[in-house]
Amino acid sequence: MKRAHPLTTTFALSALAFLYLPLLAVVVFSFNSAKFGFNWEGFTLEWYQKLFKNEQILELTQNTLFLALVSTAIATVLGTALALGLERYPWGRRMRASLETALYLPVVTPDIILAAALVVIFGILQTVSSVFQPGMLTMIIGHVTFQIAFVALVVQSRLAGLGRELEEAAYDLYSSYPDLLRRVLLPLLAPGIAAGAMLAFTLSLHGFIISLFTAGPSSQTLPLFIYASVKRGISPEIHALSSLMLLATLVLVLGSERLSRRKA
Amino acid sequence: MNATLTPQAGLKAGLQAGLKLEGLQKRFGELHAVRDLDLEIQQGEFFTLLGPSGCGKTTLLRIIAGFELPDAGRVHLGGVDLTGKAANLRPVNTVFQSYALFPHLSVFENVAFGLRSKRVPGEQLKPRVNRVIEMLRLENYATRHPHQLSGGQKQRVAMARALVCEPLLLLLDEPMSALDAKLRHEVQLELRALQKRLGTTFVLVTHDQEEALTVSDRICVLEGGRVQQIGSPEEVYARPRNRFVAEFLGAANLIPAHGNGKSVHTPLGTLELAHSSGWSEGLLALRAEGVVLCPIPPAINGVRCRILERIYRGTHLEVHLEVLGGVNGATAPDFTPKARTAPFPRLERGQEVWAQLPPEALVALEGDRA
User: Fold this and answer.
1) Strand, coil or helix: what is B69?
2) How far are the Cα atoms of A72, A197, A225 from residue A203, in angstroms, in the given order?
3) What are phi and psi for residue B219, nearest 5 degrees?
4) A190 to chain B: nearest residue by CA?
């Protein structure tokens, strides 16, 4: 193998350090026994213990997980259906191109704009029904709106790689469409669907801006809590909480990556 | 599956399982893939659609399978109109070019797929699947997955998966194209034997004329979405109807001629034919192996030649000839006949020989002129 110039290596390593040092600092300080400031005073698990005893945090964790699980479940079903429709319906060439753009748009739209739009929509819907008061329902709807596109993109790419011949073979062997979905498409798309779902779950877990705009007083989540706490001053407990969320994210992203790379 | 016609039900009802295509048309934008196509295939026949890529043969197969809807025309099978029926309601199964085996299912489950779709109960399904698996010598691979199989084994699984459904009609879309040459020949012979044993109507699509000649009862040569000629391998090979069929089936020599009757004028002189030409101006086809090389002047249709090129091909010798003098001393034309003989060592480049163009080997082609 050709060796890289030392400068290239240096640049690459500095970029990685730039990305990961702040995260690493949070993890390191979560084990620091000093209550204030940035002096290292010894290793401790005290903050983690305190965290697990903190009932407010446990409730927030419950909220966060509930939100992530429900919104991911909904977004996975809708996103998969969207991918199937986009990829398999005989659209014209132009229609397909614009639909694909429409799918990418939510991915690149700033969250704050989506959040503001949701506030407006829910504001209007509140005049119709009080279920659209800020709370868990509005948060779930909000999260689903940005998750769908991610699930659909992951599933669509897998579907495109699958080709149509297997579906024709299934039809040729007397399958109905539900049969085809159950026996051929879903098993073959499963890794893609799971990868999309894990990605959506991760996004929901730290979806902050949408949560901030759609949450009600009783539906606070961990990212919202961290934000509020940091405004009051950084405590080692927050470091511990952030580290745990980082770990959860890492596991999910690695899992998603492995699944989406798996061969059909 | 009350809407489909099983072979048993069809035969009990005394129906003809033959396939009848009437006035089929299919366009893809500018491309006219199938035009005014009429075709009748008998029950139990091994029928081949032969043609170059883009001739419409695959489109035709897809129309029969139900993957494409024709713009006009009808598809009848066993006396039932299938034209508007979806692929999963037709008693027709397909062996796909790339086999399209389900990668997540074992060989057994791949073969069982169609029966499971039809909700065949387990106690009937197992013996039926195993019988077909044995018939195609796959019993040692039943638990394997497609990625663990060789090309030939995959092809047999694709055959088994289609045949277990006992279709009225089996469609084969270039099923041998992914196999190497030696295996392909073996599989061709097996395929033919299998078809004769089962008596199922097979419709094969191929661009390989040798394959078509080897396996078929009848061949339909297609070009430009139209039927060019239908006939037994012997008829299509020895008596091509037009220039396209002659060239596609490898007739090496096309000789322009004029004169109606059994004796026509050509640049090689006046040639005697076995059958009347039927036109006043047209083309004669002559296969390379139809040319007879001899050391002395032949009694009829003899042309004096010199050997330009002598190519050793193992099974035969390919000889390119320069004409020195036409029949009965006609002047030498600018024409290089090609001949094919047994690997005959006495032929050398530059040697002078007589070439006989036997009347029965000269075929007057229909309709077009050089």
Assistant:
1) coil
2) 9, 10, 17
3) -120, 140
4) B104
Q: Determine the pLDDT at residue A262.
A: 67
**Bridge partners (DSSP) listed for residue B68:** none
Residue A234 included in any domain: yes
Least CA distance to A163: which residue of chain B?
B100
Window 133-192 of A: residues touching B by CB (8 A cutoff) are 165-166, 168-176, 179, 183-184, 187-188
Q: In chain B, where are the structural domains located? A: 7-91+167-238, 251-364
Boundaries of domain holding A55:
46-261
- DSSP 3-state assignment of A9? helix
Say whether B325 sits in a helix, a strand or coil: strand
**How far is A84 from chain B, CA to nearest CA, in Å?**
19
SS3 label, residue B150: coil
Residues of chain A found within 8 Å of residue B148, distances taken between Cβ atoms: none
In CATH terms, B7-91+167-238 corresponds, of 3.40.50.300, 3.30.450.20, 3.40.50.360, 3.40.50.2000, to 3.40.50.300
Element (H, E) at A243: helix A236-261
Would you list which residues of chain B are within 8 Å, Cβ to Cβ, of chain A? Answer: 1, 4, 65-67, 86-89, 92-94, 96, 98, 100-104, 113-114, 116-118, 161-162, 165
Q: What is the CATH number of the domain that holds A207?
A: 1.10.3720.10
| Distance in Å, alpha carbon of A90 to nearest chain B alpha carbon | 13
Question: Is B114 within 8 Å of A165 when comparing Cβ atoms?
Answer: no
Subunit contact B117:A172, Cβ cutoff 8 A: no
Picking from B282, B334, B332, B331, the residue whose alpha carbon sits closest to that of residue B273 is B282
Q: What is the mean pLDDT of residues A178-186?
A: 94
Q: Cβ contacts of residue B132 below 8 Å, gap of 6+?
A: B111, B160, B163, B164
Tens-digit pLDDT profile for residues A72-101: 999 999 999 999 999 888 888 899 889 888
In-domain check, residue A107: yes
* Packing angle of the helix pair A236-261, A222-232 (nearest 10 deg): 150
Report if residue A194 sits inside a domain.
yes
In a domain, residue A21? The reply is no
What 3-state class would DSSP assign to A7?
A: helix
pLDDT averaged per 10 residues, chain B (length 370) = 46 62 93 93 95 93 95 92 93 94 96 95 94 94 95 94 94 90 90 93 95 96 94 94 93 88 89 89 91 89 91 89 81 78 80 92 75
E strand map for chain B: 19-28, 31-41, 46-50, 72-77, 80-81, 92-95, 169-173, 201-206, 218-223, 226-231, 253-258, 263-266, 269-272, 281-286, 292-294, 302-312, 317-325, 338-341, 352-356, 363-364
**In Å, what is the CA distance from B292 to each residue of B25, B226, B234, B240, B289?**
45, 35, 20, 20, 8
